[in-house]
Amino acid sequence: DQPFPLSTLADDMRNALTGAGFSETISGSMQDEGRARLAGVEPVRLLNPLGVENAYLRTSLIPALLEGVLRNQHHGNFDLRLFEIGHVFMVDPAAKDNLVGDYREEARLALILTGEAAPRQWSTAPRKVDIFDVKGALEELLEKIHLDKCRFISYSTSDGLTDSSLAIEINDSYAGYCARVKPSLCSASGIEGEVYCAEIRLDALEAKTIRKYRQLPKYPKVRRDISVFVDVDRPVGEIIEAIRKVGSGLLEGVQLFDLYQGEKAPAGKKSVAFSLELMSRQKTLTEAEIEGTVRQIVEALTHRFGAVLRSVQ
Fold first, then answer.
1. Across-strand partners of 166?
2. 16, 67, 200, 306: least buried by Cβ within 10 Å?
3. Residue 230: CB partners within 8 Å, gap ≥ 6?
4. Residues 274, 256: contact at Cβ < 8 Å?
């Protein structure tokens, strides 16, 4: 037997992230009080610090990554994809799994993105990164480590680090967040442009999953596109979840491919369009079965969200 595992979760994540264009950083665990309090939790103060700049243990991996962004920008590097895997520490008397007294320690993964979303080229207009780039990077990572039961939920934060945040739920438990770093913090730090980040607990990624394989389908898939008007503040994730629930018998996949808010949409509404993939593993679907499933999905959206059908193609 091998005395140590040949591959760990952290190794798998490093391979996946470096393959996706990220660079790993390694930083120290000690910080000044200001940075240690940015995450909005009580930091651990060292008994005999070497100086005020190293008097506390870090409560988040994001401040050190921001320092990496600043150093890179000083050297002319503005399009950055960075990650770090490390431990954070905090005072948390309520936690039940503390190893020592009231002090809690967590292993985390953090990502940070800034600059252009893709290298410049003649055929594509340049675009700055946004929160959906962080979300996409996390979804790709979770898929590679075989965690597919994941949700992103919009929520507000009161810490000094982030705004425009999405909470990450894995197997119905809070695992972390992805968000925009507060512009005021970037400005005060001397960082140019918007910065987006994510931070997630490693223990939430260590869920044991059983891989199941299915025979390749013998029968063809059929695609139908539906477009509906819904309330402008209705999260698309809720609509996709409802579509999957109603069409679970024949629905193989659902993908948002268009979103419109403008003069042609009714007041307070937005248009969302989804591509539906329908298939049976027992037979070729009839037109009546396809139309019946699409009709059930549209009726469910109408009943639950007050959706108004625009078109079915």
1. 154, 178
2. 306
3. 239, 269, 270, 272, 301, 305, 306, 307, 308
4. yes
- Would you give the distance in Å from CA 303 to the centre of its chain? 29
> Residue 130's pLDDT band (boundaries 50, 70, 90)?
very high
174 has a pLDDT exceeding 70: yes
Mean pLDDT of all residues in 65-89? 95
- Name residue 37's beta-bridge partners: none
In whole angstroms, give the CA distance from residue 181 to residue 175. Answer: 18
Residue 247: predicted pLDDT:
80
Q: Which amino acid, residue 115? A: G
How far is C-alpha 187 from the chain's CA centre?
A: 24
Supply the DSSP string of 215-237, one letter for each residue.
PPPSS--EEEEEEEEEETT--HH
Torsion of CA 293, 295, 300, 301, to 10 degrees: 120
pLDDT per residue over 300-311, tens digit each? Answer: 999 999 988 887
Residues written for the chain = 313
Kindly tell me the burial class for residue 36, based on how many C-beta atoms sit within 10 Å of its own C-beta (0-12, 13-18, 19 or more). Answer: buried
**H or E segment at 240?**
helix 236-246
Going by C-alpha positions, the residue among 169, 179, 172 that lies closest to residue 201 is: 169
Whether the CB-CB separation of 117 and 127 falls below 8 Å is answered with: yes
- pLDDT of 4 strictly over 60: no
The DSSP H or E segment spanning 289 is helix 287-305
pLDDT in tens, 102-120: 888 999 999 999 999 888 8
